[in-house]
């Protein structure tokens, strides 16, 4: 499988860092559906300083991700004036975008936060950031399985009068999130689908055909 250099660099980094794991994993979706089959793969695309679930990525890794995301943003000619990451996994990615994107493009960062209210976690606008009425905001996250947290974050941004048309994720696990977002009226773009990553890892000898088929069967049936 041939992959553009910017994307291959990220795909290789994810695997080599151990951010793509194989085994039997419970996901966030199991909170609502405990009887769902365990996933044979797991991605932890977070940095080491993530406050809730530390991962293996470094700031340099986030810069590689930002370069690939920016290439895709230009390819799709996405119109936006600000970017917002879904906390906390995407915060280092939007900070990396600010580092690597040429300055003339000039977008602003706005941030969201997680708060606990009545025992439930809720995504809310983070005070101190300049939300502007009618402004297009591009929402970014590391991956998508289902769309609950994505829609919650979008609604938080819209509550400030800003507009969200698109959400951009690094990896789409292809487990329904894309279609849930479309049903809610939002477009989603991914840098990789999970099948694209698996096909690349098979082609480059990082996984064998047995592991590929196991993951393929899980995706097709879940």
TrEMBL record:
* GO BP annotation list: pyrimidine nucleobase biosynthetic process; UMP biosynthetic process
Q: Which domain of life is it from?
A: Bacteria
Keyword tRNA-binding present in the record's keywords: the answer is no
Q: Which InterPro entries match?
A: PRTase-like (IPR029057), PRTase_dom (IPR000836)
Q: Which GO terms describe its molecular function?
A: orotate phosphoribosyltransferase activity; orotidine-5'-phosphate decarboxylase activity
What are the alphabetically sorted keywords of the record? Glycosyltransferase, Pyrimidine biosynthesis, Transferase
- Biological or metabolic pathway of the protein: Pyrimidine metabolism; UMP biosynthesis via de novo pathway
Name it. Orotate phosphoribosyltransferase/orotidine 5''-phosphate decarboxylase, subfamily 1
The organism of origin for this protein? Candidatus Falkowbacteria bacterium GW2011_GWE1_38_31
């Amino acid at each position: 499988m041939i992959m553009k250099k910017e994307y291959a660099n990220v795909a290789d980094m994810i695997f080599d860092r151990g951010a793509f794991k194989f085994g039997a994993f419970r996901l966030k979706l199991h909170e609502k559906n405990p009887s769902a089959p365990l996933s044979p793969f797991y991605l932890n695309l977070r940095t080491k300083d993530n406050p809730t679930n530390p991962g293996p990525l470094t700031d340099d890794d986030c810069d590689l991700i930002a370069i690939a995301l920016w290439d895709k943003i230009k390819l799709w000619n996405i119109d936006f004036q600000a970017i917002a990451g879904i906390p906390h996994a995407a915060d280092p990615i939007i900070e990396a975008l600010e580092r690597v994107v040429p300055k003339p493009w000039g977008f602003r960062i706005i941030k969201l936060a997680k708060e606990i209210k009545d025992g439930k976690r809720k995504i809310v606008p983070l005070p101190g950031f300049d939300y502007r009425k009618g402004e297009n905001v591009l929402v970014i996250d590391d991956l998508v399985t289902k769309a609950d947290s994505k829609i919650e974050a979008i609604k938080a941004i819209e509550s400030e009068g800003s507009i969200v048309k698109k959400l951009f994720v690094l990896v789409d696990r292809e487990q329904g999130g894309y279609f849930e977002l479309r049903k809610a009226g939002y477009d989603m773009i991914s840098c990789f689908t999970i099948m694209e990553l698996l096909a690349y890892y098979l082609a480059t000898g990082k996984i064998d055909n047995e592991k590929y088929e196991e993951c393929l069967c899980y995706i097709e049936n879940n």
